[in-house]
Amino acid sequence: MNVALLQAYLSSTDFGTTEDQVEALIRKHEAFENVLAVQEEKVRDSTEQCHGC
After folding, report:
1. pLDDT value at 21 more than 90
2. N or C, where is the chain less crowded by C-beta within 10 Å?
3. Which SUPFAM superfamilies match (predicted)?
4. Can you tell me the mean pLDDT for 32-50?
5. Confidence class of residue 10 from pLDDT cuts 50, 70 and 90?
6. Could you give the C-alpha distances from 4 to 8, 10, 34, 43, 47, in angstroms and in order?
7. Which region holds residue 24: left if phi is over 0, alpha if psi is between -120 and 50, else beta?
8. Under a CB-based contact definition with an 8 Å cutoff, are residues 25 and 16 in contact?
9. With helix as H, strand as E and coil as C, how does the chain read?
């Protein structure tokens, strides 16, 4: 996911009206959480490297 897609995702007010739509949104949310976790790890690694300089 790129930043523009993430911004659109976060500002969306579409919560789904059917079970299938809600499940799809839950999967998108889980994917977003995974992307965020990877980015947090990258920031943490970069911060640790900077402190080691």
Report:
1. yes
2. C
3. Spectrin repeat (SSF46966)
4. 91
5. confident
6. 6, 10, 17, 20, 25
7. alpha
8. yes
9. CCHHHHHHHHHCCCCCCCHHHHHHHHHHHHHHHHHHHHHHHHHHHHHHHHHCC
Specify the length of the chain in residues.
53
Contacts with 31 (C-beta within 8 Å, 6 or more apart), sequence order: 1
Positive or negative torsion for Cα 5, 32, 28, 9: negative
Q: What is the mean pLDDT of residues 1-21?
A: 84
**Residues 16 and 22: beta-carbon distance below 8 Å:** yes
